[in-house]
Amino acid sequence: QVPPPLVEPDAEGLAPERLRELQERRFVRLVDRLLAAGGVQAARLRDCGVTRGADVGLDTVSQLPMLSKQDFEEYYPFGLRAASEEDIVCVHGSSGTRSRPVLAPYTAHDLDVWARVVARALGGAGAGSRSVVHCAYQYGLFTGGLGLHQGAMRLGAAVVPMSGTSTDRQLRLLLDLRPDVLCCTPSYAIYLGEALRSAGITAEQLPLRVGLFGAEPWTDAMREQIEELLGLRALNIYGLTEVMGPGVACESLDSEGGLILAEDHFYPEVIGPDGEPVPDGHVGELVFTTLTKTGLPLLRYRTGDLAAMSGPAEGSARTLRRMSRIVGRRDDMLVIDGINVFPTEIEAALLADTRVAPHYTVVDDRRDLSRPVLRVAVEPRDDDVDAAALESDLGRALFERLGVACEVRVLEPTLIARAGNGKPLRLVRWEHGV
Ligand code: ADP
Ligand code: K
């Protein structure tokens, strides 16, 4: 099989030395932009003795300050913005901690770069201007829907913005519009596949050839299941709102299981627990520097996502480096249906209700791959509480705060499992096949 052609050969096929030169140049300009914008990133650079871009280089990037999700919380809503108000053309967001969403303002230039990296990802999956892209990521503040949407249009494909429309309608348009490309979360892909199967539609009747699935962690077991249910090649797409959205990295048909990083725009580092650089092939935390972003340029943003880096696939025309799938998180962030959920947020929602005792357990239940469920068990303060009313009130409060439907159970006092130290087990992960 012939590998799909490059969408941006000048970038995707750059020789390593040329890439490095480009990254250096962009990095110096980024630091100048950050210094000119003022704000916390400029102040931290000055504290390190950096007063102009020419003071820095990628060889010494590890000496520069890092940024984390806490900075987004502290400088909410737009304290990290570097472009003027006139130049911001849209805002996206995802969940943060302490009920403050993570907000990302984009300039027209940023949206252009984003569309281009997503177009590359789709191109690497074999899509082209004759493709029909069925986009079932959520449209809205979340970056998934509109991110894939803009990229598909940039490629010249026809995108169908399905978002979270009813399953019946998803199936109908899959059959009637004959899309060759499906984009959604991997758990939704399994859900759709099972729905098709129950409707008596076989994979052979479907026109789909390839899918870009991401926004949440998944495994090779899920990949096999999706490929079998839908009769397509299932590829992994990765990104995060802070850095851009989906398209930061993506598998291609010829990338052999690694996700090709758009490292001409997002300079990657992998660090260990003490911040020290981790060599290729070893897992550490991904840190990104946005080399070209103007609305929300980030110097050394700690993602919390754990992965390993490697070189390009042997003999591939795609010369940018690859990262492994995300193998875990540094913190205890959970991702349910693509939505990031922090256990501290669950706790805050529960303890805001005075009927609830400070003993609770959150179960991240992934036994059914197509329907990950967050189960929350609480103990009431008083025995005579109306359990049904409390369950429905807490379910509503959690949905409002997290954007995720949780299954809430009020248990008898003392029923919640305690660890050796007598404290409740706060978080339990219940994996598929366990
Ligand atoms: P997105 O729209 O890309 O999901 P968010 O900002 O809502 O952006 O969430 C980003 C987080 O989602 C990442 O930091 C990571 O933890 C998780 N994530 C996104 N894509 C993947 C993927 N392909 N595999 C594993 N985790 C992913
Ligand atoms: K996510």
Structural description of this entry:
This protein has 434 residues and is of the alpha/beta class. The chain folds into 2 domains: 9-331, ANL, N-terminal domain (Rossmann fold, 3-Layer(aba) Sandwich); 342-430, GMP Synthetase, Chain A, domain 3. Helices cover 30% and strands 24% of the residues. The strands form 5 sheets. A 9-stranded mixed sheet has the order 4-3-5-6-7-8-9-14-13. The chain starts with 8 loop residues before the first helix and ends with a strand. The mean pLDDT is 94. Residues 215-216, 335, 338, 340 line the site of potassium ion (K).
Descriptive key words:
434 residues; alpha/beta; 11 helices; binds adenosine-5'-diphosphate; binds potassium ion
Question: What topology does this entry show?
Answer:
Blueprint: H1 9-12, H2 16-37, H3 39-47, H4 69-74, E1 88-94, E2 102-107, H5 108-124, E3 132-135, H6 143-155, E4 158-161, H7 167-176, E5 181-184, H8 186-198, E6 210-214, H9 220-230, E7 233-240, E8 245-250, E9 259-261, E10 266-271, E11 284-290, E12 301-307, E13 309-310, E14 322-323, E15 328-329, E16 334-336, E17 339-341, H10 343-351, E18 356-365, E19 373-380, H11 387-402, E20 406-410, E21 427-430
Parallel strand pairs: 3-4, 3-5, 5-6, 6-7, 18-21, 19-20
Antiparallel strand pairs: 1-2, 7-8, 8-9, 9-14, 10-11, 11-12, 12-15, 13-14, 16-17, 18-19
Helix pairs in contact: 2-3, 5-6, 8-9, 10-11
The protein binds adenosine-5'-diphosphate and potassium ion (K).
